[in-house]
C-alpha cells in the first residue's frame, strides 16, 4: 500500500509549536521508565527452545485462564518464524481504554508520539474515521500507516487491524470490553505488497487494572507477497528478507513493545478520563 501522505515530516520528538493548542499537550512526557524487570530477564535468557514457542494457531488460547509457559521471551520456531512475547502490567487501565486508545491515537501523529516518545515518528489512518464508531469498531477493518524506530532502524509499516475471529478468537468471550479485549493485526510494508507477520495484544482485567499480553509472529510462513507478475517478483526479493528476520530484530521488538506499553499505561487512565469524548 502506498502511503497517503508521502511528504510527511519524519522526525523524532516534538518540535516547537507542534503541540500548541492540542488538548493532550500536557501528556507529552519524553522520559521513559526503566525497562520492566521481566523484559530484562527475557533478554538475558536469550532465545528459547523452538518447542516452547507457540504457533499463530495457538493465539486463541490467550483467552484461557492462567498464564502460558512463555509470557516474556523470544526465539525462532522450527517453521522459520520469529516469536516474541511481552507481558505488561497496566495499573488503573481497563481493556475498554485500550480499545479506545487504538481507535484514537492514529488521528494525528502527535497523539502517536505520546505512546513512545523515543521511537514513534508518524502515524495516520488510510481512511477517514467511521462516523460514530466507538471502541473496537473504530479501528477494526482499517489500516494504520506507521513510521517508528525498532531499535536503531526506522521501520515504515502498515498495520491492518482485523476482527479477532479472523485468528480464531471466540468473540462472544470478548463481548464485555470492561473485562477483556484482543487487538489483532496483519503487519505489512509501506509501498510494497508484502506482509511481514501478525501481532496480537490480549488485554484482560486483573485486580488493580489490566494486564496486556502481546504476541508477535514474524517471517517464516507469516511473511509473503500479495502481487503477481513483475511487481510480485520484485517484492519477492524483499519478502525473502522479511521472511527471515533476525534474532536481533526480535530483541529490539521485545524492548520496544515493553517500553511503549509501559509508557502508555502511565498516562492512559487520566487521558481517557479527560479526553475520551475528543474525536
CATH fold title of the domain at 73-252: Alpha-D-Glucose-1,6-Bisphosphate, Chain A, domain 4
Order of helices and strands: HEEHHEEEEEEEHH
Largest sheet: 9 strands, antiparallel
CATH architecture of the domain at 73-252: 2-Layer Sandwich
Distance between the termini: 26 Å
Describe this structure in words.
The chain has 279 residues and is α+β, with helices and mostly antiparallel strands. Helix content is 25%, strand content 26%. Strands 1, 2, 3, 4, 5, 6, 7, 8 and 9 form a nine-stranded antiparallel β-sheet that branches. The protein is globular. The two termini are 26 Å apart. The mean pLDDT is 94.
Note the main attributes of this structure.
single chain, 279 residues, Alpha-D-Glucose-1,6-Bisphosphate, Chain A, domain 4, nine-stranded antiparallel β-sheet, 25% helix, alpha+beta
Summarize, please.
This protein is of the alpha+beta class.
Amino acid at each position: 500500500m502506498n502511503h497517503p501522505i508521502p511528504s510527511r515530516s519524519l522526525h523524532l520528538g516534538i518540535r516547537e509549536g507542534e503541540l500548541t493548542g492540542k488538548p493532550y499537550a500536557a501528556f507529552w512526557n519524553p522520559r521513559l521508565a526503566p525497562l520492566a524487570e521481566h523484559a530484562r530477564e527475557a533478554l538475558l535468557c536469550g532465545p528459547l527452545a523452538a518447542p516452547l514457542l507457540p504457533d499463530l494457531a495457538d493465539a486463541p488460547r490467550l483467552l484461557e485462564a492462567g498464564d502460558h509457559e512463555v509470557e516474556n521471551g523470544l526465539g525462532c520456531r522450527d517453521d522459520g518464524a520469529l516469536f516474541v512475547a511481552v507481558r505488561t502490567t497496566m495499573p488503573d487501565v481497563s481493556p475498554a481504554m485500550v480499545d479506545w486508545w487504538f481507535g484514537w491515537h492514529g488521528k494525528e501523529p502527535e497523539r502517536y508520539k505520546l505512546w513512545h516518545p523515543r521511537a514513534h515518528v508518524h502515524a495516520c489512518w488510510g481512511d477517514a474515521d467511521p462516523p460514530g464508531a466507538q471502541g473496537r469498531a473504530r479501528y477494526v477493518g482499517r489500516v494504520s500507516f506507521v513510521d517508528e524506530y525498532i531499535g536503531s532502524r526506522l521501520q515504515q509499516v502498515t498495520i491492518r487491524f482485523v476482527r479477532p475471529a479472523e485468528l480464531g478468537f471466540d468473540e462472544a468471550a470478548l463481548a464485555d470490553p470492561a473485562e477483556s479485549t484482543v487487538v489483532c493485526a496483519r503487519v505489512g510494508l509501506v509501498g510494497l505488497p508484502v506482509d511481514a507477520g501478525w501481532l496480537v495484544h490480549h488485554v484482560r482485567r486483573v485486580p488493580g487494572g489490566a494486564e496486556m499480553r502481546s504476541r508477535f509472529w514474524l517471517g517464516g510462513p507469516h511473511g509473503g507477497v500479495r502481487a503477481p507478475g513483475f511487481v510480485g517478483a520484485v517484492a519477492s526479493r524483499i519478502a525473502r528478507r522479511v521472511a527471515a528476520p533476525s534474532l536481533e530484530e526480535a530483541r529490539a521488538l521485545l524492548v520496544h513493545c515493553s517500553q511503549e506499553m509501559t509508557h502508555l499505561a502511565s498516562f492512559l487512565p487520566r487521558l481517557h478520563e479527560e479526553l475520551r469524548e475528543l474525536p
